[in-house]
Design goal:
Blueprint: H1 11-17, H2 21-78, H3 82-91, H4 96-126, H5 130-145, H6 150-157, H7 162-184, H8 189-213, H9 225-259, H10 262-275, H11 280-299, H12 301-328, H13 330-338, H14 345-352, H15 355-371, H16 375-400, H17 402-418, H18 427-435
């Protein structure tokens, strides 16, 4: 079936693409994912900035603190299964229902642990603060409904992410309209937390509809104890790596709140909302080329290496191309979006943006580690990054506030990504990482 994007491709390029079925599938899938994130990036950033202006740095910081705090426990809901499930679906289509059913049960159990743990710890450290309990509880409850994103893994394995785009954008659009209404009627902070949960609920519902539209039924899923154990055995290093990654991606917000207060959290959150909005790009690209890379690894070592090197080259220059102009215009962008009350976020944004180089390459190199069953290295290098981040945050946040957190993030992300050079099994690919800006293939 011809892609909707195909009609806008120049005739000369269309001729070159004809006959390359797998490439067309990748580009088609990537186009849908880019469309999804572009819509979210545009409307989400502007509506989010409007919400931030309305709430102010203090309440905006409190809202982001609750999300970050819930995310520290939210890793239990993923169990590191995402890439593993996609890989197994690509390798063995005949076991689709067992793979999806087992993954869903595991993720649902992990989500329940997330919710209970987050509420318990919040109660212990925040006492009887009802607002914080509600904020963290609602943020944590979203992970329960996100268990159904195993349906997204199926669409990824089929390189047909347009259905996920339909589901997520429908939910996003409805909740974005509701956010605008909440600002106009001057709703309280808790109302925005309910909207965030509502988006997770609607996305899950729309994913179920999309799955049914493709002639599949959730009731056909089957939990298989052996399959679940197999998935856990494969994913536990990624779970630990994700835990370490979450620590140094979200712990900075928690540390800012505890060490210097909510206003600095609001400033930092305003900067990172702009900086991290681009992080979808490597996810989109890697999720689209993942089946091709997995297959090339089985076909030819030289083809596999060539594709990985091209991926590294693309990621490097994409990150640099985004970071350079935005960092130069950071003060103007922040003031335009958030207003003068968030002006201090400009320099923070200019520093934090450059973390994207390490993030983009980190996502690409994680694909290599996954394909070659080197998940333990993912854990080790992420642990190195987490330790670096915590140490630098302890030193820099009391002195520099939000800027200290941005510097700690930049250094720790870079240390984590390039620490692959320390591991013999991944050293050859680490060399490609260092050479990525200069060598395309």
């Amino acid at each position: 079936m011809e892609s909707i994007w195909y009609r806008y491709v120049p005739n000369r390029l269309r001729t070159r693409l004809s006959g390359h079925g797998s490439l067309n599938s990748i580009l088609h899938n990537m186009g849908w994912l880019f469309f999804d994130r572009f819509i979210r990036m545009g409307s989400g950033l502007f509506v989010g900035a409007w919400v931030a202006r309305y709430l102010g740095p203090e309440q905006f910081g409190l809202f982001n603190f609750s999300i970050a705090f819930a995310a520290l426990f939210g890793i239990a809901s993923t169990l590191g299964l995402d890439g593993i499930v996609v890989r197994e679906l690509v390798k063995d289509r005949s076991r689709q229902n067992e793979i999806l059913g087992s993954a869903f049960v595991l993720k649902l159990g992990g989500s329940a642990i997330t919710l209970m743990s987050a509420l318990l710890v919040t109660r212990l450290i925040q006492g009887r603060n009802p607002l914080m309990l509600w904020l963290v509880g609602l943020a944590s409850a979203a992970y329960v409904f996100q268990s159904l994103n195993v349906i997204d893994f199926y669409f990824q394995s089929e390189v047909r992410s347009k259905y996920t785009v339909y589901a997520s954008n429908a939910a996003f659009a409805l909740m974005t309209i509701l956010k605008i209404i909440l600002v106009l009627i001057r709703a309280n902070l808790l109302a925005f937390a309910w909207v965030a949960l509502g988006e997770a609920v609607l996305t899950a519902g729309f994913l179920i509809i999309a799955y049914r539209h493709n002639h599949h039924r959730i009731r056909e899923w089957r939990y298989d104890g052996e399959m679940a154990l197999e998935l856990i055995k494969e994913s536990w290093p990624l779970l630990l790596a994700s835990l370490a990654a979450m620590l140094y991606m979200r712990l900075d917000v928690v540390m800012l709140q505890e060490m210097v207060g909510g206003r600095e959290v609001g400033i930092y959150a305003a900067a990172t909302r702009i900086s991290e909005v681009w992080y979808f790009l490597p996810m989109v690209i890697v999720s689209s080329v993942s089946p091709s890379i997995i297959n090339s690894h089985a076909e030819s070592a030289s083809l596999y290496i060539r594709r990985m090197k091209r991926l590294y080259f693309l990621m490097t220059w994409l990150a640099i191309g985004l970071s350079l102009p935005i960092s130069l215009l950071s003060r103007w962008i922040v003031t335009l979006l958030y207003g003068h009350q968030f002006e201090a976020a400009g320099p923070v944004l200019a520093v934090h943006l450059w973390s994207s180089v390490a993030v983009f390459l980190g996502v690409a190199s994680s694909q290599h580690l996954l394909v070659e069953n080197l998940q333990r290295i993912s854990f080790y290098r992420t642990l190195i990054g987490a330790a670096t981040n915590i140490m630098l945050n302890l030193i820099l946040i009391p002195r520099l506030g939000a800027m200290g957190a941005a510097i700690a993030t930049l250094v720790s992300y870079s240390v984590a990504t390039f620490s692959m050079i320390c591991f013999r099994a991944a050293r050859s690919h680490a060399v490609h990482l260092f050479l990525a800006p200069f060598v395309r293939s």
